[in-house]
Amino acid sequence: MPQGKIVKALSGFYYVQDQERLVQCRGRGVFRKNKITPLVGDEVEYQAENDLEGYILEVFERKNELVRPPICNVDQAILVFSAVEPDFSPTLLDRFLVLIEANEIIPIIVISKTDLISSDKIRGEVQSYAKDYENAGYTVLLTSTVESTVENDLLPYLNDHISVFAGQSGVGKSSLLNVLRPDLELKTNDISSHLGRGKHTTRHVELISVGTGFVADTPGFSSLDFTGIEVEDLSYCFPEMRERSSSCKFRGCTHVKEPKCAVKEAVEKGEIPQYRYEHYLTFVEEIKDRKPRY
């Protein structure tokens, strides 16, 4: 049986990309019985007499699954944050990074609009932040508003992967995608505008081919709370803490008040930036204050 990837789901139809062929499929009744809902990003086996009358027979195992946006098998998240206009926000970036890490998706940090920096002080601050995140183990790309730099810097990372774009609003996510796929003609601040959403059209996720990869056409993460993340899991979402946790005196150390904590020692030595640790403590309190769900 042929196999392919679901690149769009709309009104009960699933559009399966099989190399150059796009096949409109319905899910088999067995999915409803087993409570399986095919998602954009799913690798599936299908049967089709023609391009308009196919059936999905099997959904293969997923490596991850996001609820908002509803998509699965995401390889990486392109987190776009601007150097200026709006100013770079490490607090918001750390919040995104925790959510991405918790879903076992590889984050790639893009700091855009670097050519619009007007002072040496701000340039130095942005470069210092970029170095901190690189030292933590992240890939950081500094891009300008010049189109050629976007293609040269970003496109190689998108090839052969499923990527989602997320980040601050107004940072140029649509502008980046417009450079990579000019035919989309995305309006600024609306990554999904090319779907022609009107009053009666439903919002949906779609995978757009960019280079030899796919980019999810979605506004990214619509919720930035830490539902599902427990205090004991949080440090695993900070790579520089994750790698030091085994050196703490106490197993299950939360790196808050425990003695002989390798993470706190690394903060004191300047090996972990103070602001990253402070964000971690803020997130710990936020998770503790979360109202229990019954």
Automatic annotation (TrEMBL):
Its EC number is 3.6.1.-. Residues 72-222 form the EngC GTPase domain. Residues 63-224 form the CP-type G domain. InterPro entries: G_CP_dom (IPR030378), NA-bd_OB-fold (IPR012340), P-loop_NTPase (IPR027417), Ribosome_biogen_GTPase_RsgA (IPR004881), RsgA_GTPase_dom (IPR010914), RsgA_N (IPR031944). Keywords: Cytoplasm, GTP-binding, Hydrolase, Metal-binding, Nucleotide-binding, Ribosome biogenesis, RNA-binding, rRNA-binding, Zinc. It is found in: Cytoplasm. Binds 1 zinc ion per subunit. Pfam families: RsgA_GTPase, RsgA_N. Its main location: cytoplasm. Its cofactor is Zn(2+). GTP binds at residues 112-115, 167-175. It is an enzyme of class 3 (hydrolase). One of several proteins that assist in the late maturation steps of the functional core of the 30S ribosomal subunit. Helps release RbfA from mature subunits. May play a role in the assembly of ribosomal proteins into the subunit. Circularly permuted GTPase that catalyzes slow GTP hydrolysis, GTPase activity is stimulated by the 30S ribosomal subunit. Belongs to the TRAFAC class YlqF/YawG GTPase family. RsgA subfamily. Monomer. Associates with 30S ribosomal subunit, binds 16S rRNA. This is Small ribosomal subunit biogenesis GTPase RsgA.
